[in-house]
Structures are given as C-alpha cells and as structure tokens.
Write a structure and sequence with these properties.
Oligomer: single chain
Order of helices and strands: HHHHHHEEEE
Number of helices: 6
Helix content: over 70%
Shape: rod-shaped
Number of domains: 2
Distance between the termini: 79 Å
Radius of gyration: 42 Å
Mean pLDDT: 82
Strand content: 5-15%
Structural class: mainly alpha
Strand order of the largest sheet: 1-2
Low-confidence stretches: none
Largest sheet: 2 strands, antiparallel
C-alpha cells in the first residue's frame, strides 16, 4: 500500500480507536485493511483484536484467579483497584467483549471466505484445464484429419497424369488407370499408371 494516509488509517491503533469511539467505522477500516493488505494480514488482524480483548480482560481474570486461590498480597490490591474502577467496569469490559466477538466473527468470516475462494478458484482452474485439454485434443484430431487429407491429395497428385483423348484430342487429368474424357465423355485409358 503506497498511500501514507490509508496506511495510517488502516493501522491497528487507529482501528482500535475507531472501534472504541465509532464501531461501525472501525469495522469498515478492518475490511479496508483486509482489502489493501491482501493475504498478508487478513488473519492477523482478527487474532490481534482477540488478543487485545483478552489483554483488557486480564485484571478481571487475575482478580478471579486470586479470589479462587485465596491469594492476598500487594499485587491483589492493585488488581482489585484496577478492576473496580468505574471506567474499567463500564467501558473497557464491554469494549473487550466487543473486540473478542468482532475478532472471532472476522476470523471465522475470513477463514470461510478464504476456503470458499480457494475452492472456487480450484474449480475454475480445473475447468479451464479441462477445457484446454479438450481444445488440444480437438486440434490434434483436426490436424490428423488435415494431414491425412493432404497425404491423400499428394498421393493422388503423384499418380495424376495428362492423358490425351484419342477420340477428340482434349487433354484430361487422370489419376487412375481408366477415366472419362471431360469433353466427349468416352472412356480413356491412362497407360502410365
């Protein structure tokens, strides 16, 4: 991708920001990124979204682990403070869920579309290959027929001689031992064959 503006807009940080503030535009940017980068980052983008969503869930996961194992130290206090923040509870958890669900959906869609395009491409390639084989086979048959016709004509031309009709004196081309004069319609004989 050569356009710097499109590179900047389709970068992951800008996609994450747009997904947070304007989710619809963020999804469109993900599709633009998949379109511009082709196969390089089609699968990487949804996986990164899932990883960022899981990363945002880490304080909640750590709090759950610490509570279930009854661990209390200075880190548990920090984790509880982070997970009890109003901004984290109201905004980041829903954003993390959104990122994970969008990442999973996009990953499944990209894998399905890739499988469909691969299968369709394979079928199209197979049909083109079969068509080319049939075309070559037909051309070979036509070439054989033409070669045979040319050989027959050459053999006929080898055996063709000018014969003068003894009755009317006209010149006739004969390729066989006996023939008919073109002018007087009498039987004539080719003595050279």
């Amino acid at each position: 991708m050569k356009n710097l503006f499109l590179k900047l807009i389709c970068s992951l940080p800008s996609i994450l920001l747009f997904l947070y503030f304007f989710p619809f535009i963020g999804i469109l940017l993900i599709f633009m990124r998949a379109l511009f980068y082709r196969n390089q980052r089609k699968i990487a983008t949804p996986i990164i979204l899932i990883c960022v969503g899981i990363f945002l869930f880490l304080p909640e996961i750590a709090k759950f682990v610490f509570e279930s194992l009854n661990i209390e130290n200075e880190y548990t206090i920090y984790v509880e403070n982070i997970s009890n923040l109003e901004f984290y509870q109201n905004n980041l958890i829903s954003y993390a869920k959104y990122l994970i669900s969008a990442g999973v959906i996009l990953l499944v869609l990209s894998l399905l579309l890739k499988a469909i395009f691969d299968k369709v491409g394979h079928q199209i390639g197979k049909s083109i290959q079969n068509y080319a084989k049939e075309n070559l086979k037909q051309e070979a048959e036509i070439s054989k027929e033409n070669d045979l016709k040319i050989k027959i004509k050459q053999e006929k031309a080898k055996n063709t001689n000018y014969v003068k009709c003894p009755y009317c004196g006209a010149d006739n081309l004969l390729s066989e031992k006996f023939g008919t004069c073109q002018y007087c319609r009498r039987k004539i004989e080719n003595k050279k064959v």
